[in-house]
């Protein structure tokens, strides 16, 4: 489908950045296959819209100059391009623009119209850590196009919501937010630049045109793989049109985009190493909103981590929807026939993948960059924990001894319905294996209450798993059926909402009781803590996180600095300190600080 600045269900996105021959092949492929029967109707709708554009489609201009700009835009839009334009482009070399920060504009836009011209962008992030990282990627792209960032909603020219679709409640939060923003948009003074509102991320990808039809005040949609197209989408929106790009990619990883850290005082950062998921668990919407798995080249990840180290950050978290299934195929010499090693007793819903640089290699290389920088990773799948990964976690002081191991259920029958690829017995065996490999490891997990067909006996088996494992941290939710998933098409959401709520409360109660027991084993121990800043509940206390990712609270007092003998200091964000734990709950540890230290010398004050 050709890229046009009108309401599109799916657009090709960044068409003009391709080689001319690629444009033709992509256009032909869209016309033949995707998105199936709707393409021809969309193309017809696009052509009609281009021919019928007039000044009445745009907001009334406040000045004669703005009127001239919009009329010029509409006339160029009505004039093309057509499909023949892209066919001709295959034999006509495209001249490169002199500006390195602006993509080649489509024929209906100029380079100047792709620039932000210092318009202010307000970004709100909802959902997981990947969305936090996506916000930084989107802002990096917009910043290079000349936009400014604002933390004041009232002065924003553009408001972008980075959204989540994992549960119905997450989407309802966005609908509620849009109602508030609609009032803000209506009240915007006519003398100011019209306010533009955009929906980014998974909700845009899942609902597509439903958002544009339901909320006319939304100006742009951008799926998780379309952030490079944001300058074009916003330029189109300036003409008064709605614009969308929700095309999923087989290769987009934003490897060449350096995320812009949003907090100047941050001590840690997220580094995305792969995107998408191939597991196709029956309850999960992620493969449909994030696409297939693809991994960044190792070299680009290492470069980003080095830059973060040079900026003084003390912790990075490697991110991915299935982070430990990382597989870099960018270097041909490593594309051998070696198959993926899975955890014992685990299987996949797809054919075994071969070749590439795997997660163990990446983890090894990242941990060598800065011995004083902590390394974490999330969110993994239990199937992808071969011994070489566990050995690295055990050996390297700067790889945190914390593993997130999503179980989802304690019932083998429910796990099979979820298509998780393991039984309860295999999962428990992996837990024992990890604890043998990494003594003192901190474990966290995810659980779903009330999945399709879950009986009371299934629920009790999940309760017993919580008691058996004694996780340090847990994330528990009631099941929320999502359209497009296998469960939506093949299973019945037959557990009443009141039963889901009761079971969830029971799981939370048991988790907190067992987590408190697990965390109390730390009382009397000395733990290394990375200071994050002041405690939210007390101006006289500091907070940080230990190796196991538990929050630790301690008084803000002077202490010895073992890195400068005899000097007494107060802890600052980014410092490593040793804290003796005096009490514990299901979520927090408390203690008193002993000294400031380093990762390497953390045993000096023990």
Automatic annotation (TrEMBL):
The lineage of its organism: Eukaryota, Metazoa, Chordata, Craniata, Vertebrata. It holds the Pfam family Radical_SAM. InterPro entries: Elp3/MiaA/NifB-like_rSAM (IPR006638), Methylthiotransferase (IPR005839), Methylthiotransferase_CS (IPR020612), Methylthiotransferase_N (IPR013848), Methylthiotransferase_N_sf (IPR038135), MiaB_methiolase (IPR006463), rSAM (IPR007197), rSAM_horseshoe (IPR023404). This is CDK5 regulatory subunit-associated protein 1 isoform X1. Keywords: 4Fe-4S, Iron, Iron-sulfur, Metal-binding, S-adenosyl-L-methionine, Signal. Residues 119-239 form the MTTase N-terminal domain. Residues 520-595 form the TRAM domain. Its cofactor is [4Fe-4S] cluster.
